[in-house]
Amino acid sequence: MSRAKATVLVAALLAAAAPAPGQEPAAPLSAEAFAARVTGRTLTYSTPGGTYGMEQYLPGRRVIWRFMDSECQRGVWYEAGEHICFVYDAVRTPQCWSFFEEGDGLRARFEGPGGGGDLVTVEESDSPLTCPGPQVGV
Questions:
Q1: What is the pTM of this model?
Q2: φ, ψ for residue 45, nearest 5 deg
Q3: pLDDT at 9
Q4: Per the domain annotation, does 132 fall within a domain?
Q5: Among residues of the chain, what percentage have pLDDT more than 90?
Q6: Interatomic CA distance for residues 63 and 86, integer angstroms
Q7: Positions in the chain whose pLDDT score sits under 50
Q8: What beta strand segments (E) does the chain contain?
Q9: Residues 6 or more apart from 133 whose CB is under 8 A from it?
Q10: Number of domain units in the chain
Q11: Which domain holds residue 61?
């Protein structure tokens, strides 16, 4: 086989092994990988329609979530199989997601009824979440 054909064959094999755009990664992040990736950070999530909300990930698997137009909600997260589930003070029903590394950010897929589209991170910060309204300064 000529060197040019071998180069084309290797390139084709590498392309076939790489996930296609929009294709699922091999597996969602484990709880340990998720904790290492987000603890101490505030992530802003977006949908194709615009910014969805922000979540601050605190030590001890604690979180503070805020939709863009509402007050902050405190909660916790835990591992349930391959999912990361969240329970908030105001919403006691677990909200379970799968998280995937995507480029420099994360993609989150809701794993409950009425799933909807994925969320993607559009910003990450070491700054605390700003909580307007009655919980000012939280």
A1: 0.76
A2: -105, 145
A3: 26
A4: no
A5: 62
A6: 9
A7: 1-20, 25, 135, 138
A8: 42-47, 50-58, 62-67, 73-80, 83-88, 95-102, 105-110, 119-125
A9: 71, 72
A10: 1
A11: 27-125
